[in-house]
Design goal:
alpha/beta, Rossmann fold, two-stranded antiparallel ribbon, 5 helices, 11 strands, binds glutamine
């Protein structure tokens, strides 16, 4: 997929990208700040109505069982599915990775393993090279993080730790096991915005929704 330069998401003169941050629970405020610093118009979303017509969506870290219950309780599942099936991008981080897996929303053909690094290893940081984001490694903050235990052929692995995928992508959905919002490295958010721009451009040029994200 041609993305231009994923590290410079700004679109001169165009309407800012409206990027939703699911704000049911967890670490949504820092994502909002990071997206705003990149020139997006971030929207904290808690209702199905607020999920409509977004250019992109972040599903943040937190507690995946709590977020899954909130999605069910607040009737958000079909709105998130509609967002994904219209080809609009999603960045799922940590618990957000789990929410998108086969055992939850099934938006990505992958199974995440919760607390995969062990509950004792509550938190650690390392420098991680992420495919497509340039040669400089990212400072990756892992907090009771999952990894991808198993995935289908459509899923591209962008980074691994000890052989376990921790950043993956399928179409315009990017899942990351760590917390990119807790550092000042905004490249994954910039990637989400570049994917949102490509989705918006496609819809504008052919009048049709961009290619579906459905597996
Ligand atoms: N361990 C959490 C879960 O399984 C995820 C942790 C996080 O998002 N930082 O839901």
């Amino acid at each position: 997929m041609g993305l231009g330069d994923p590290l410079t998401p700004e679109r001169g003169g165009a309407e800012p990208l409206r990027i939703g941050v699911l704000a049911s629970q967890g670490d949504f405020a820092a994502h909002t700040t990071m997206l705003r610093s990149l020139g997006a118009d971030p929207v904290q979303v808690r209702t199905a109505e607020e999920l409509r017509d977004l250019d992109g969506l972040v599903i943040p870290g937190g507690e995946s069982t709590t977020i899954a219950k909130a999605i069910e309780h607040d009737g958000l599942e079909s709105a998130i599915r509609a967002h994904a099936s219209s080809g609009r991008p999603i960045l799922g981080t940590c618990a957000g990775m789990i929410i998108c897996d086969r055992e939850h929303l099934g938006l990505v053909d992958a199974t995440a393993r919760r607390n995969a690094f062990g509950r004792q290893v509550a938190s650690f940081e390392l420098e991680l090279e992420v495919g497509g984001l340039g040669p400089d490694p990212m400072r990756a903050v892992f907090i009771r993080a999952p990894w991808i235990e198993d995935h289908g052929a459509e899923v591209e692995v962008l980074a691994s730790v000890d052989g376990h995928p921790v950043v993956v992508r399928q179409g315009r959905i990017v899942l990351c096991a760590f917390h990119p919002e807790l550092t000042d490295d905004s490249r994954l958010h910039a990637l989400l915005m570049a994917l949102a721009t490509s989705s918006r451009d496609r819809s504008a040029s052919d009048g049709q929704p961009a290619t579906s994200n459905e597996p």
